[in-house]
Write a structure and sequence with these properties.
The structure is a homodimer.
Chain A: H1 5-10, E1 15-18, H2 29-42, E2 47-53, H3 60-68, E3 73-76, H4 96-105, E4 108-111, H5 133-142, E5 147-150, H6 156-164, E6 169-173, H7 200-212, E7 217-219, H8 228-231, H9 246-257, H10 263-274, E8 285-292, E9 312-319
Parallel strand pairs in A: 1-2, 2-3, 3-4, 4-5, 5-6, 6-7
Antiparallel strand pairs in A: 8-9
Helix pairs in contact in A: 3-4
């Protein structure tokens, strides 16, 4: 935490939605507030918006308490799919009372939208997100006033599904999924994350979504730090680390896509609006000018290889 | 070569089709014969069937010489797609005179059946084989008497395409593609090869092909040794190493699939028949009984991690 938290503001970010898939997972209001205190101690200039891990132990009462404590969301992980998701969801219908309470108290449901792989149904990492979409529609129809964010979307079909839903359904897009396709994932462990990057057509759909300036689509970094030896090994951990250069990556990408004018909305306005948060008053300042991404963050201890390590970006953070 | 060649017979194999994508590539009859001599010196009990690399420098005269020298095939690699394929093919039509000579002299065309990735056409490693299939049909229609092997097939569509072609078109299937899907490739560099393993449905099509006992489908190991540090790194080399345990892997898989009775045909008969070679008289003997695949081949020097390293197989080679 002491190594990674300072990377957030270095990357031009002053607000973060904090995921609950720690070890142990954040399953109670107390744990979330304690985690928030620890984060604030390390960098008090960043706002940390907290979430709870959706498990069978979460009650409508806890949702009410969470809302009172300014916890803003509940994250659902399909069981076994991503880092520390062993406790995740197998069947959404059992959560109806929790979703109803979230609807009442204004908490947002953040969804890792993949179903588990399954040979019989031909489901694997390439189509696990597509097969999740009926569940998204199902929850949205049952709880139309529940705000839902489909996190780190990676497919054309997911983008279309989110567009088709009402205003209460949004989606996040990561910096790395705007750049990667499956070709750059196989054999390249630093690009391996869940959901994995898909076909060129899917990446184009993500790019088109940000180019369009549709406020349903906003930034979610899904940044995950793993030590180099947990990536460059026989079974790599899933996750791409983007925190330290998040805004430069995005500016570099948006500039190349010819939509720099959409960056402010995507990174700072649409998400805040979706979450009913005031606009940020103090922003980071980006300047044009090359910056080289280091080969490693914290080379003497944690040894995290950042996204696009060793590459040169055309934008850097002047102040944040 | 001194480390890897002895692995061939250890894996229960006494006949091998030698690929020409060495550095430098095998582009002349002389090089092929010299390579064959070096291989024979290391293990004279294995038959090495030689191939030439299809390049623009290959002439019909060289094809005739090759046939006279018992070189049995020409391998085509689409440019830039796999290990040492920089010299590969961009447009097949320029090879018409060479293909005609191969048809006349009975050389087999071995094809790495993938087209290069291309964002505009949504082509990536997941569909590069499928997009190649029209080219297979094109060559087969133009040269119906040319024997063609679609190497290391990985998709349902490729299996169907080969079935639809005449008897002069066959296909190889590797030991590893009978086991892997894309889920076991992402983040697992020892499973990364080209073409990559695809969807569960594709793996099932490969399994169904071997279960069917259709003689169009036979073993091709596509075994490729890379040192561990070229696999467990940021950009892994493509290739799975199966030589040392090839027959045990296959027996283990076929046993699990309930088609052990199809193993002999798949591994020793159908391929020989396709190539007009006599049946093998001395075979390897497999016995039921567990064997553990080592974590590493040649741990003191080359450090190659074999397929299914550390796993236990239910069959082993008693003699070969």
């Amino acid at each position: 935490m002491r190594v990674i938290v300072p990377q957030v503001r270095r990357g031009g970010i002053k607000r973060a939605l904090i995921m609950p898939n720690t070890v142990p997972p954040i399953t109670t209001v107390e744990m979330a507030l304690d985690y928030q205190r620890q984060l604030t101690e390390i960098d008090p200039e960043v706002e940390y918006f907290m979430t709870l891990y959706l498990t069978a132990d979460l009650t409508p009462e806890m949702v009410e308490q969470a809302a009172a404590a300014n916890i803003i969301g509940v994250k659902s992980y399909p069981a076994g799919l991503t880092t520390n998701s062993e406790l995740g969801v197998k069947d959404y219908d059992i959560f109806d009372p929790v979703f109803a309470a979230m609807e009442t108290h204004g908490l947002v449901l953040e969804v890792h939208g993949e179903v588990p792989s399954n040979d019989e149904d031909n489901i694997c990492v390439m189509n696990a997100e597509r097969h999740f979409l009926p569940r998204l529609h199902h929850i949205h129809e049952k709880f139309p006033n529940l705000k839902i964010v489909l996190e780190h979307t990676t497919t054309f079909e997911a983008i279309e599904a989110v567009k088709q839903c009402g205003d209460n359904v949004g989606a996040t897009i990561t910096a790395h999924h705007l750049e990667l396709t499956i070709d750059k994932v196989v054999g390249q462990p630093h690009h391996f994350c869940k959901p994995i990057a898909k076909y060129p057509r899917d990446r184009q759909a993500l790019r088109d979504a940000v180019i369009s300036g549709n406020p349903k689509f906003f930034l979610g970094s899904d940044s995950a730090p793993h030590p180099r030896d947990k990536k460059e090994c026989s079974h790599a951990c899933a996750g791409v680390f983007t925190s330290g250069y998040l805004m430069p990556y995005l500016a570099d990408t948006f500039d190349r896509l010819g939509c720099l004018d959409k960056l402010e909305g995507f990174a700072t306005i649409y998400g805040a609006a979706f979450y009913n948060k005031p606009r940020q008053t103090v922003m980071c300042k980006l300047v044009k000018g090359p910056i080289k991404v280091p080969e490693m963050i914290d080379p003497d201890a944690m040894k995290v290889v950042p996204f696009r390590a060793g590459e040169t970006l055309q934008w850097s953070v002047a102040e944040c």
